[in-house]
Amino acid sequence: MDFPRARQQFYQEIQQPEASLSLAKAALYIAAEAYPELDPVEYLQQLDRITEEIQTQLPKERYPLRVIQTINTYLYEQLGFRGNTEDYYDPRNSFLNEVLNRRTGIPITLALVYLELAQRLEFPMVGIGMPGHFLIRPDFEDAGIFVDAFHQGEVLFPEDCAKRLSQIYGQPVDLQPEFLAPVSPRQFLARMLTNLKMIYLYNHQIEQALAAIERILLLFPQAPMELRDRGLISYELGNWSLATQDLEDYLRYLPQAQDGSMIRKILANMESDRG
């Protein structure tokens, strides 16, 4: 594949079985496209060093809440990590190297740091893809608690998650079971890239948004909405051959799509102009 080196490394990492896929490595390969001089080993070692410091502070009895409290004390109180509430949509919040350098980020990247530390401490946790706000929880049956890495590692119960969801959307929201379901590593990375894509689109950085979409499609090659968005961006950039293929695939996967008539009109216009 004719990809930049960082893209090739990302692709190779996501070919690993789910249990072996390193979120930290994959996230650093995502960042390396924006920071070509980035050395992933440096940041992996930084995570190792933080883990070693936490390890020295852990109590002998490693009950879940005590482990979480120890991580929280070191990560947030001693190192000063925090959620970036001042500039939430800064692209740097989505890059693991910048999150570690600046000690601030958005829910999913702070969750990534937390997950990596927990894994190294042999305290497995999983990502929870709640709409609008990413959480994590200990990975054992009936854990019953969730951790909000964006809010200083606050421990939440399901009713707290429901309140947080209602706060985010500004109205009461019924907490559906699927809102608190764990996500796979590939789903985790796709959500990271989707955040990045939306930030770039908001900032009118079209080519960067396209790069984010292309990596989502490496994770999920048949994702209809990403095919549509890549097709629309390709159309705007004048790459009509790729645009036609993607938009036709989108309609093949979702023939009843609400925006189907608009997409068919774009396809017809390209065909007419080519003819």
From TrEMBL:
Which parts of the sequence belong to the Protein SirB1 N-terminal domain?
42-193
Q: Name one Pfam family in it.
A: TPR_9
The organism named in the record is: Roseofilum halophilum BLCC-M91
- Name the family: Belongs to the UPF0162 family.
The name this protein goes by in its record: Transglutaminase-like domain-containing protein
Q: What is the lineage of its organism?
A: Bacteria, Bacillati, Cyanobacteriota, Cyanophyceae, Desertifilales
